[in-house]
Design brief:
Chain B: Its main location: membrane. Chain B: InterPro entries: CPA3_antiporter_subunitC, NUOK/Mnh_C1-like. The complex is a heterodimer of chains A (507) and B (128). Chain A is an all-alpha fold. Chain A has 22 helices and two strands. A two-stranded antiparallel sheet of chain A has the order 1-2. In chain A, helix 8 (157-188) runs antiparallel to helix 10, helix 13 (275-295) runs antiparallel to helix 14 (300-321) and helix 17 packs antiparallel against helix 19 (409-435). The radius of gyration of chain A is 22 Å and the shape is globular. By secondary structure, chain B is an all-alpha fold. In chain B, helix 1 (2-20) runs antiparallel to helix 2 (25-46) and helix 2 (25-46) packs antiparallel against helix 3. Classes of the chains: A mainly alpha (507), B mainly alpha (128).
């Protein structure tokens, strides 16, 4: 019990990893794997809640592995942002696993769905909680290889095509990341993120550091789908099985966003060397091109994939402004977006179950035959479009308000315009799939199983909770943003109280 | 010394980037392999290589001698090699499977994913 509490930080990573190993042991028994997986994810959820409570009451948590003195060994660090991301990962992983009970086919389970899924969750949680930049690279790779396995799980032509595009661009991204880490190590001689923050705040700007910052931006940009690096995303996400698409949409790109937030607050500052202007242009491009791409598509999954890109732009907008209000908005946006986006993909899966197609031209008539599904789709769709009082309204309001406050009027304008086009896309899905009379009339409506509706309802409920009672979430996001923009707290929590003294005037 | 290494690494990386620009999937994979080899060499270079004794603690002493080679980049490179190997192995299997199902590895002809829900014409069904 004592160990459990003092090391609460490692459980959100260890539990899914151990569960993945257990599932691999039960390779030929998919039924057993299913329940092991659900059990493991439930425990992970409990551990993440425990971690969040601990971070809130006791401050940033640190664990050093192998008793190496910090900063020489690998450390795990949970600050407010990391703990919140771990919790949201656990919530989403469990909800999607329950949805998977109705959607995952035997063949996919025999191809190793459960170990891959849990391995990916472990990779995501590890990336959120690690405090070591090389270790972050390792978690990225764990995430990448399990994600490729999940993406190609049916081995159809479309999936293989999508996976190759995904694999090549993401491999390039991680290689750039590794190259940046190598040069950074050569310049500073350390890999611990807190120590890097301390060393970099004291070092003179140099060509090598500027190069490293640029490479980090591009590497995380590929991961997160920033303009102009997002093309692999709508080329691959829609080919996967819908459970996989949903978890990718919710989590994988957000790891890239998280990493850029971490690196460009703790180690580099967006104020130096024109990074702010670059990120601002990229943010505007990400928002605009994502939403334009979505406007012409007819496959629900492709529309939603392009919308992932456009929504990432709002988070970047927060990073580009880097005021406390903007960062709080971005953090709030990430949490809102993970829930809503995954829920929309689950809704796409349910629409597929009900109509037999993802192509909007062939779907229709769901309003009459599946009113509950219509309601469960409407909540995340309206929230994504930013209709009050749902969570998306507060998220967009916080970000755009911060943009006006920082007199970045053009960015705010782009944000508002993209919000309008998002309404267009969502109403397109609504009109085509729910209102239109279907081109092919069915005698018997196809039922959507409970195991699909319940996770959607739960995620919808989370959206509604954030929408109607945003205050605790906003306060948490504010506190997160304050500590993100003041790296001293993070550095002191990891390296000890005296480490922060000599960078008193920084930031 | 460093300049020679840097020149060698940039030659390797240049070849890798050239191969990446190809349309043929296998060439792209070879390009990724060359790039990852180049990155591994950069990690080595970042650890300050030179004519140093190996990082082994002599009998009777408790610390490394000050001029010993830096062992950390070796650990990092080892990790990166293992990860790179597994990724390339997976990607090659992927390419093989693609060749078996589609009969081609030319990226111009591999456009099944793009065709889904395309606004222009519906060639394929909206199924997986």
């Amino acid at each position: 019990m004592n160990l459990l509490l003092s090391q609460a930080l490692i459980w959100p990573v260890v539990l899914p990893l151990a569960t993945a190993a257990l599932c691999a042991l039960a390779w030929h028994r998919p039924a057993i794997q299913r329940w092991i997986s659900l059990g493991g994810l439930t425990l992970m959820l409990a551990a993440s809640i425990l971690l969040l409570v601990q971070v809130e009451t006791e401050g940033t948590q640190t664990v050093a592995f192998g008793s190496w003195p910090i900063p020489f060994g690998i450390v795990f660090v949970a600050d407010r942002l990391g703990a919140a991301m771990a919790l949201i990962t656990a919530v989403l992983a469990l909800a999607i696993a329950v949805f998977g009970l109705a959607d995952i086919r035997r063949r996919q389970e025999h191809a190793g769905f459960h170990p891959l899924y849990l391995g990916m969750i472990a990779g995501v949680a590890g990336a959120f909680l690690t405090g070591d930049i090389f270790n972050l690279y390792v978690w990225f790779e764990i995430m990448l290889i399990t994600a490729m396995g999940l993406l190609a799980i049916d081995r159809t032509r479309t999936q293989l095509d999508g996976t190759i595009k995904y694999a090549v661009l993401n491999l390039l991204g991680t290689l750039l990341f590794l190259l940046a880490v190598a040069i950074l190590y050569g310049v500073t001689g350390t890999l611990n993120m807190a120590d890097l923050g301390r060393v970099l705040s004291e070092s003179e700007p140099s060509a090598a550091l500027a190069l490293v910052a640029a490479m980090f931006l591009v590497a995380f940009g590929i991961k997160a789908g920033y303009f102009p690096l997002f093309f692999w995303l709508p080329a691959s996400y829609h080919t996967a099985s819908i459970v996989v698409s949903a978890i990718f949409a919710g989590l994988i790109t957000k790891v890239g966003v998280y990493a850029s937030f971490r690196v460009f607050t703790l180690m580099f500052s967006v104020d130096e060397g024109g990074i702010r202007e670059l990120v601002a242009v990229m943010a505007a491009g990400t928002m605009l091109f994502g939403v334009f791409g979505a406007a012409v598509q007819w496959d629900i999954r492709r529309i939603l994939s392009f919308h992932i890109v456009s929504q990432i732009g709002y988070m970047m907008l927060g990073l580009a402004l880097a005021t406390p209000a903007a960062m709080a908005g971005a953090v709030f946006y990430i949490v809102h977006h993970i829930i809503v986006k995954a829920n929309l993909f689950l809704a796409a899966g349910a629409i597929y179950r009900a109509t037999g197609t993802y192509d909007l031209r062939k779907a229709g008539g769901l309003m009459g035959s599946h009113p509950i599904l219509a309601l469960l789709f409407a909540i995340p769709a309206l929230s994504l479009a930013g209709i009050p009082p749902l969570s998306g309204f507060w998220a967009k309001y916080m970000v755009i308000d911060a943009a006006f406050a920082d007199s970045a009027h053009w960015l705010a304008g782009v944000g508002l315009f993209v919000g309008l086009l998002t309404v267009f896309s969502m109403s397109k899905i609504w009109v085509e799939a729910f209102w239109k009379t279907p081109p092919l009339e069915r005698k018997h409506a196809r039922r959507v199983p409970m195991a699909m509706l319940v996770p959607m309802a739960i995620l919808g409920l989370v959206t509604l909770t954030i929408g109607f009672a945003p205050e605790p979430f906003v306060l948490y996001a504010d506190a997160t943003a304050t500590s993100l923009l003041d790296p001293k707290t993070y550095i002191e929590a990891v390296l000890g109280p005296q480490a922060g003294l000599d960078l008193g005037e920084q930031q | 010394m460093n300049f020679v290494y840097a020149a060698g690494i940039s030659a390797i990386m240049g070849c890798g980037i050239y191969l990446l620009l190809s349309r043929h999937t296998m060439r792209i994979l070879l390009g990724v392999m060359l790039l990852s080899a180049g990155v591994n060499l950069v990690i080595f270079l970042a650890g300050r290589i030179g004519p140093n004794p190996p990082p082994i603690i002599e009998a009777g002493s408790y610390t490394l001698s000050p001029e010993a080679a830096n062992p950390l980049p070796q650990a990092l490179v080892l990790t990166a090699i293992v990860i790179g190997f597994s990724l390339v192995a997976f990607a090659s299997a992927l390419a093989l499977q693609t060749f078996r199902t589609s009969g081609t590895l030319d990226q111009r002809e591999l456009a099944d994913a793009e065709a889904l829900g395309s606004p222009y014409e519906s060639k394929t069904e909206g199924s997986r």
